[in-house]
Here is the input.
Amino acid sequence: MTNTTKTPTPVPDTIERVLVLPHAVERVWAAITDPHELAGWFGDTAEVDLRPGGAALFTWGGRDRSAAVVEVVDPPRRFAFWWTAGVGEAVGPENRTLVEFTLEPVDGGTRLRLVESGFAALAHGLDQHRDNTEGWATELGHLEAYLRADVSA
Here is the structure.
C-alpha cells in the first residue's frame, strides 16, 4: 500500500534582494521614502507619514491599494514598514509582512538591501511569497530605471 499523503511545501519566510546603485545614500534614501519619488517607481501613487507609527498607502493601476504602517525611520540608513498581504485590507498581525530597506555607502554608490519577512505566518504565505518575489524583481528594476533617468535628466 502506497502512502499518497502529500507533505506540505514549507513557506519561505523571507525575500532578500541586494542592489548596488551608482548613487549617493542620500539620493537613494529620498527615492525610497519621499512619497512623490516613490510614486515615480513604486506603483502609481504613494502616501507616507514618515515617522514610526505613521500610515502609508501605495496604489497600482488606480485601484489596487496596499495599506502600510511605518515601523523604522533611521535616515539615511534604514526604513521599514509593515504592509498588508491582501490588497484593500487594513494592516493587522494576521495579514502583514515587514519590508526593510537598509542603505550602506560603498565605493561608487549605495548598497541597498531589501528584506521582506513574515510570509510563514500568513494563511496564503506561499502564494504571497511567490507574488511578492516577482513584484520586488519588477519594482526594484523600476527603481534602478527611475534613478538612472534622474541622473540623465
